[in-house]
Design brief:
Blueprint lengths: L2 H35 L3 E6 L2 E6 H19 L6
Antiparallel strand pairs: 1-2
């Protein structure tokens, strides 16, 4: 195998890795903007309990709960 054969695949992997980092940085920036704009408190009624918290915190808790449910219920892939 010559060195030229591996160069394009290595370059493609580096390009994909860089794209993943750009997407991650963009999502972090959007999350920071979202948190900055949603600092106000809001009330949530759960059965007979009323919780007052910033909207970003409530949405983060719901996101984490959804991720946990997804991890618990995911199907394993067969290889």
């Amino acid at each position: 195998m010559s060195r030229d054969d591996t160069a394009p695949s290595a370059a493609r992997r580096a390009g994909k890795l860089a794209l993943r980092y750009w997407v991650a940085l963009t999502l972090v920036a959007l999350a920071a903007i979202f948190i900055a704009q949603n600092r106000g408190g809001t009330q949530v009624h759960i059965l007979w309990i009323t919780v007052e918290s910033p909207m970003w915190l409530l949405l983060t808790v719901m996101f984490v709960a959804g991720m946990l449910v997804g991890l618990l219920l995911r199907r394993r892939r067969r290889s």
